Amino acid sequence: MSSQPEQSGYFRKGFGLKAEVQPDLAQYEGQVVDYLREHDYTLTAGDVTIRLAHEFGFCYGVERAVEYAYQTRRKFPDRRLFLVGEIIHNPHVNSKLRAMGIEILERNDPHGAASFDFSRVQPEDVVILPAFGVTIGDFERLRQIGCVLVDTTCGSVLNVWKRVESYARDGFTALIHGKYYHEETRATASQVRKLANGAGQYIIVRDMNEARIVCDFIEGCLEGAALLAKLGHAVSPGFEPDQHLQRIGVANQTTMLARESLAIGEEVGAAIARARGDDARARDFRTFDTICSATQERQDAVLELLREPLDVMVVIGGFNSSNTISLAALCAERVATYHIEGATGIDPETATVHYRLPGLQHQESDREGWLPNGPVRVGITAGASTPNNKIGEVVARILATRGLPIEALP
Prior knowledge:
Blueprint: E1 10-11, H1 18-25, H2 31-38, E2 42-45, E3 48-52, H3 60-75, E4 81-84, H4 91-99, E5 102-105, E6 126-129, H5 136-145, E7 148-151, H6 155-169, E8 173-177, H7 183-192, E9 202-205, H8 208-218, H9 224-231, H10 241-244, E10 248-252, H11 258-276, H12 278-284, E11 285-287, H13 293-305, E12 312-316, H14 322-332, E13 337-340, E14 346-347, E15 352-356, E16 364-368, E17 376-382, H15 388-401
Parallel strand pairs: 1-7, 3-17, 4-5, 4-6, 6-7, 8-9, 8-10, 10-11, 12-13, 12-17
Antiparallel strand pairs: 2-3, 14-15, 15-16
Helix pairs in contact: 1-3, 6-7, 8-9, 8-11, 11-12, 13-14
């Protein structure tokens, strides 16, 4: 996709309006976060101590995507603007874009194979592609319409695309660690099929349990039909286990739990070695860590914070944000953890928190008395699509739960 010339109505580098949109983007900054950074990521008020992870919130790819959306609105003030799905998985940012007159297109079946409905898009319209990227099919449909395309696909995602394309070109099936319905994974899987004859193959595994199903097949402990019964919803068209699991290259959705992605690669490689020997592993297996650096840095930072004595961990980010879910999963292993979308998830008057339960299913719950009595240490981190101002609002709500006004801070 990146080879399309910008003069043809395809733009990947913005419109040179960075300075003009900077005042609009300032709304996502936060004085509370600035205060925390200046005070060793620590804020103490009364008997509450807040500790912020050293890496958190907006990453470069997200900043770039949001900035390009604002530049696009400034560049085309009188045109209809569409966005193919959410630009990032943060409800506050997406609602701001809607308020600017950017219409967000949605799939009819978010967890299925349905494509986006572009029937309303006209050649004179402008369409923004999200940071996750879009499938080759959706991209080609938009090019056929002839509308202006503004592509904000993250560079880390493009690196994964190059990796799986090389697997397909060399005759390796891409085993992708990700969520089969996630926009990024759908786009990555489509890159596997990029070859002219559509010969590239893929299989998507959500976690180590699903990866072990593949390993069981490789080692002859599971029939191909049984594998397809379990994972048939997450394979390429015409996938034949006996044929397409002989040579495997591992990649991943960039926002998954890094240690699990690495472990899956090791497990699959070991299964090939056990089944066919070390020579087969060297010849028929490839793996490459395609977790983005921002995801890795945020996971490393939260693990470092968890070494400290903490009573509660608050993780801020969209309930559908994969990298935020991964952060919450790490935290939940060590301490009581509450994944909230923003400050409205905390009600100071009732001392209640509305949060997403850790796990595979999207389940939410409310809990009273979530903040322990007495002196308390609260750890905070935020997913890569969470702006600083939303982190500051959460800090204010935590303090308000103890009757401490944020305005009293220096």
